[in-house]
Amino acid sequence: MRGYYGQRTGLPALQCWVNGAVHTFEGDLMDENDKVFAGSIPKFYDTLMVPLIFQAYADDLAQRVAASSPGSVLETAAGSGVVTRALASQLKPDARYVVTDLNQPMLDYAATRQGSDSRIEWRQADALDLPFDDASFDVVCCQFGAMFFPNRVAGYAEARRVLRPGGRFIFNVWDRIEENYFADDVTQAVATVFPHDPPRFLARTPHGYHDIALIREDLRRAGFADIGIETRAELSRAPSARDAATAYCQGTPLRNEIEARDASLLQLATDRATQAIASRHGEGSVAGKIQAHVIVAAG
Ligand SMILES: C[S@@+](CC[C@H](N)C(=O)[O-])C[C@H]1O[C@@H](n2cnc3c(N)ncnc32)[C@H](O)[C@@H]1O
Predict the structure, then answer these.
(1) pTM of the shown model
(2) pLDDT in the model for residue 51
């Protein structure tokens, strides 16, 4: 990705190439960039990040969705398809499973990983503006996507709109960054490379929406009446500190943030993150706590 800063309407603007097209972002540059999962990110994301922190929660989410034997499921912010792979085999032979994400490159990657399955329909869609009729699904599920919604109440209301009466919205969000050790280590280490303008993507977005009272309030404002929230800790494992550091620095939009400052420092940032994880969690294979909230909303 190449980018340059410009000026329009008095707000900072960023134009960059994503998969051959020019995208213009205005307003808070980094917040806009936070939701861009494109270029080399989908591959790094799926091969490094997914086994590191997403697989265990995907298995949990899939089990919760499948428990009611739904006839129709909508997945939003599906990314590279870790939940899809866990859930498809548990759904009924005649189930309808619509899998969506804002970023087409993530969906393209997901489709290549999924075996042929006529029940699955892949579709690019913004979770805040779903191209589906009211009351079309028994379950809407979303793994670690809500933190990226620019307006969570609107996103939740949209999930509720497409749910049939009695349907359930099942999703998860990360807990605070201090409860997610590698993410915290990486954020602190990368800050040493850019001390005057530290990249804060991980703290700001994936780990920026963890207040249970706020989540409940947002869901109530979206119309949900019945809300259950469970906090769930897991262990994140990687073959080496470098694998974990590369996953965070190069397989998430943290990469966009580093490259926007100085693309030539991506490797140094990854090296610093590697050293930080190794010094705290040891040489060789590493393990660190991760923690998330799992939410089931209905009514
Ligand atoms: C952390 S990834 C999670 C992906 C996947 N659910 C998983 O568990 O690996 C966040 C995903 O949210 C997607 N996303 C961001 N904003 C979105 C929006 N407004 N609507 C739908 N998807 C969105 C991104 O494209 C990205 O794939």
Answers:
(1) 0.88
(2) 94
